[in-house]
Amino acid sequence: MDVLDLDQVHSAVREAASEMGRLDILVNNAGLGPSNLAVDVTVEDFDLTVDVNLKGTFFASQAAARIMIPQGSGRIINLSSQAGFVALPTESVYCMTKAAIAHLTKCLAIEWGTHGITVNGVAPTFIRTPGTKAALSDPAFERDVTERIAALHRIGEPMDVAGVVVFLASPAASLITGETILVDGGWTAR
């Protein structure tokens, strides 16, 4: 679904619940971040980043909660980023939205916990994906990122994030809510 189209968001969530008979898990994974110095950020890039990263996460969560609340259970997992915990040059708007997602996760967890819904976040470091391929193809940039990943000194792989998402969606995480788990190889431990 296109998270910029709230009709699509509400329709997709309703259709998933109808098709499956219920809705147990929502993973909010849409995100983007046009890179630019803060002094050069355009209103269009600002609005797009906030709309996709934050507004999309909020309204997809709301649509899911409207189904999960009557069920008395559910798991919502929001993708934040280590960028929500550290400052990255040329990424001020992206960092801001990812920090907001971590706080939104806490707010929704408190509000919906009485309905049996857990809301958690996952905050990955740089992960080898098509979205990071261009940046990581610069050897100097990759060396710098690898060095900043203080404890493990390696770029993350998609499975590093998927494992945490699966854990948070599972019964093993039933007492965890309002948390954002950093999957950053030690970057923020410095």
Keywords:
alpha/beta; Rossmann fold; 4-stranded parallel β-sheet; globular
Task: Describe the secondary-structure layout.
Layout: H1 6-20, E1 25-28, H2 43-71, E2 74-79, H3 92-112, E3 117-124, H4 133-136, H5 139-148, H6 158-169, E4 180-183
Parallel strand pairs: 1-2, 2-3, 3-4
Largest sheet: 4 strands, parallel
Quickly name the level 1 CATH class: Alpha Beta
Number of DSSP helices?
6
What is the CATH superfamily label?
NAD(P)-binding Rossmann-like Domain
Radius of gyration, in angstroms, nearest whole number: 17 Å
Q: What's the structural domain tally?
A: 1
Share in helix: 40-55%
Low-confidence sequence ranges: none
Main sheet: which strands, in order across?
1-2-3-4
Structural class comes to alpha/beta
* Level-2 CATH architecture: 3-Layer(aba) Sandwich
Q: Secondary-structure element order, as H and E?
A: HEHEHEHHHE
Shape: globular
Task: Work out the strand percent.
Answer: 5-15%
Number of strands: 4
Oligomer: single chain
Whole-number mean pLDDT: 95
